[in-house]
Amino acid sequence: MKLKTFLPLSLLLFMIPVTLTAQDQINLNTPWKFIQGDNPDYAKSGYDDSGWQTIHVDKIWESQGYDPYDGYAWFRVHIVIPSSLKNNAFLKDSLLIYLGKINNFDHAFLNGKLFGINGVNASPDLASDTNFIYAPINFWDKKRNYTLAVNDPRISWDQDNVIAVRVYDQGGQGGMYTGDQMIRMTKFTDYLMVENNKTPYTFNGTSISKVITVKNTSSSYRIDGKFTIEAVNKLTGSRTWEFVEKLSLSAGEMRDFPVNLKREDQSQLVSSTFELAAGPDVLRLSDETPYITTPAISPQPKINYPTITAARPGKPFLFTIPASGNRPMTFEALNLPPGLSLDPKTGIITGKVDQPGKYIVTLKAKNNKGQASTDLTISIGDRICLTPPMGWNSWNCWGLTVDEQKVLGSARTYRDKGLINHGWTYVNIDDGWEIPKDREPKRDPSGNILTNEKFPDMKRLGDSVHALGLKYGIYSSPGPLTCGGYTASYQHEIQDARSFALWGIDYLKYDWCSYDGIAKDTSLAERKKPYFVMRDALASVDRDIVYSLCQYGMSKVWEWGDEVGGNLWRTTEDITDTWESLKEIGFSQVENAKYGKPGNWNDPDMLIVGWVGWGPNLHPTRLTPDEQYTHISLWCLLSAPLLIGCDLERLDEFTLNLLTNDEVIAINQDPLGKQATPVIKVGDIQVWIKELSDGSKAVGIFNLGANTVSHSLIMEKAGLKTGLPVRDLWRQKSLGKSGNMMDFKIPSHGVLLLKIG
């Protein structure tokens, strides 16, 4: 099936005009009709949908009484499209129907005729073929913009029109869910593409730079107007740079505009504005410049967190001393328990310890600049994962396109860029390594799971990861299929656990997905059941495997995750690289706080910094630098697992600096394992406090608002003592002693992360 685009539009998020009057558009965020199942007659305009249920398109269907449900469903709405919409428009050629985001795939019909598939226009002569084209699972985060010519026979002007949307959800959340759906005429700004986030800023000594691209995507219109780029300091509001030029872009023309700014110690807001000469439209978008707060890593040796690690008696042990500083470096480990040995050149400790107990080992690291030492507690007993896992997971960057070389490349980057020296340990393969659902055989004659051609030898890959001093993770599901439609572990749990142990797996992410089709109901017993089964399977193998429950917080998993053997459990749906997603997920981690402790961690999902995209096409994170500082700070305060989700081989200077601040990481890896809670909420300001093992407190002061604000932290109100040392952890800078009140200025969506005591 070939799809045709009727108009060559690039309708991205930032290209929807920021101001629209009621006369400009028709709001589609109204109650729709809804039915589960699939029937091609549901697309027909004359179909009687009076018996269907009512549903809203501003939330997933699971939150509207359809939990669990995966598979096909239909949405329908009746709407009159008045001819005044086109008569009053400046451009009168095309109608835009915007359906928001849909989880996962869609066919859109107008009056019984197909007009869009998965965000791509379907031309009038396209047959109503309802077989979905293959698309990556990350279509759930793609906006559905469709355009039709005003003379398109599918439109009934000034009459009743029926929009019918056929949705297929292959796991997890489902439905139309953003609430911003609407109909309007296209505008010049729809043909104007301004790319300001295609590449990140580059640091060049005392300056930073990037290129902003402006393109006229129309095949027939010339676009004239004034293009302005302005930069202002986010804290002071002072202008730091400005560029203005009158532009005349012919159809298809593209122009690049270099931006060169002085490097500052705060972010600069860079606004791009295109004021059109014809018509009232104005296109505005902005981004923010990165700024590095953490001082350069010292060449002198320094042993970093974690300061405690664990294994079960008689199980393979692996720990790499996380030491920063100049290489080459040599290592010592005094008082190692019997059964363990150290490689003095790599700092990798391996072996097995049979006798339970807590062993205090003195670690030493030496290079040409000096020597460092610290104590490491090795706990041999029933509990593992005594600090939140730190590592990398393939999903947020590569999605289902992950392969062996991408995994190996990530593992080598740990070493080459020094992440391993700061405690980053796990290299985890997510979905996409198994045999897909439409291929056979999925298992060998003995029932052992097979891998696809992208992963020819899992044990060889594991050996390569372990040789670097890193740990090795994998993914499966308790149902028959994974979220991506690959072979999962249902009824083969013990065989899969044995395969994982043979391959050297150290971490299993176990994702609910297709188990919805197995569970009898949504009772707590049914929610627990598959995790008990894999818990027992993992306990039967001769290897410690960290057990990560991924079932999106259903039935308050934090209350029973430990009971079913979990070391960590997802508390939310998937995160995306947007402020809205980060804010909703991160700042909701309150009810579960008391359940987080060593060996049991609340998991608000993976990190969304660096180059992400859910495969195969990546982009720099849409989070601003201040939002990224907030992201890492909050996850560290929450004692959340830290799993990098970006392409490690494209780590830029800002992102690498963000991930290697040892004083910030120490908050996450503190052995007390206490999760922060909010103690102050005033307007857009939230203050979160975390108790630390040395008696001090980590304090995050967050600004959730859109503007820079000042905040006075009253120590007594926050439950903090006066007269204690205060340290800015991101800048690794002392701020003196705490007084009765401390005044701070915090940028929009930004944070101040302190240690007091």
Structural notes for this entry:
The structure is a single chain. This protein is mostly beta strands. It folds into 5 domains: 13-186, Jelly Rolls; 191-288, Immunoglobulins (Immunoglobulin-like, Sandwich), CATH 2.60.40; 302-380, Immunoglobulins (Immunoglobulin-like), CATH 2.60.40; 390-668, Aldolase class I (TIM Barrel, Alpha-Beta Barrel), CATH 3.20.20.70; 677-756, Golgi alpha-mannosidase II (Immunoglobulin-like), CATH 2.60.40.1180. The chain is 12% helix and 34% strand. It contains 10 helices and 47 strands. The strands form 11 sheets. Strands 36-35-34-33-32-31-30-39 form an 8-stranded parallel sheet. The protein has a 7-stranded antiparallel sheet with strand order 3-2-4-10-6-7-8, with no helix packed on it. Strands 40-41-42-47-44-45 form a 6-stranded antiparallel sheet, with helices on one face. A hairpin with a 5-residue loop joins strand 16 (223-233) and strand 17 (239-249). The longest helix has 16 residues, at 524-539. It is globular and about 85 Å long.
